[in-house]
What we know:
This protein is α/β, with parallel strands linked by helices.
Amino acid sequence: EAILPAFGPAARVYHASDDLPAVRTMATFREPTNIAMDRRGSRRTLDEFYRTVLFDESDGKFSDLFPDGRFSDDEELNEAIRGYYRAATAAGSYRKTLEGAYRFTNKEYRMPQIAAYSKTPMRYWHRGTLHSNGEGVHVLSLVGAGFDSSRQPDYKYYFDKSTQDIRTDRRGEFYRERQIAFAIALQCAFDHGLDRIEFVAVGAGYFSALLPPGKVLGVQKTAWESEEVRAYKSALEGKLGREILVSFRTEPPYSHNNGMGAGMPSFYEQSGWTGNGHFEDWKDAIDRTLFINAWDPWSLVGNGNEMDNSVDGYYGRQSALALLCWPI
């Protein structure tokens, strides 16, 4: 009960979409767990939850979360989403196959990509000791494109089976999405007065399994070094009054992973900008750093938590991000 009042008001959703209702849809309709399209937990319970918490006629939260009453500015998409989530069912009857909003991505259209920021308390075991940070850690969860299963909507949208690579006509879009991710991270750091970013190679790990090796990381490197991202970084630094330093490892183990296992955040030991004399002390390091989490387009932040050995899973099991980054 103390976490929401303390940390909830500062939580934010970042995006670069013109379709604000669709952004709200993506932030709201999440699945508890989706690992390579393997869904865990009861989707019947999820349907019951949405119908009770969002759509209840007397005290549902729908009007608070969707003040214009729309799921998308596109009329056809709006009606498709409305028909899916508000489909008439018999009283007390709930669907066992309900899916998150990313289901509306298809071969011709992609739902908006969002990122979720929150400062979160952390609890984690390290070398037999339970550590706690009640004051909170700044975390931005960025979404990667999913190529870990041929059933993923991103695979259907981007993938060319004849070349086993990104479709030629959509490579520019894929590249711009990586630029936007860096821009959002920089903007988020600026918004919260932070001058260090621990970046992780979002989407370059498990999510890139069906792409050529190194494909996503190569695009990320090019995006980070692009004139557009560098110019945006410089403009924000001019307003902030100091340089924003980014730790972006391009060799394994990727950023904030100290080798003890996938996704171990770097505030455990020295890594990137959180150690090696870059700050006055440990608290200064945490207070000035934005940590990047590699999120999923389907799930709540943290996804499978203890049964998910990705960066996202480690953040989920050690923080309150699932609660804080979900607008419901």
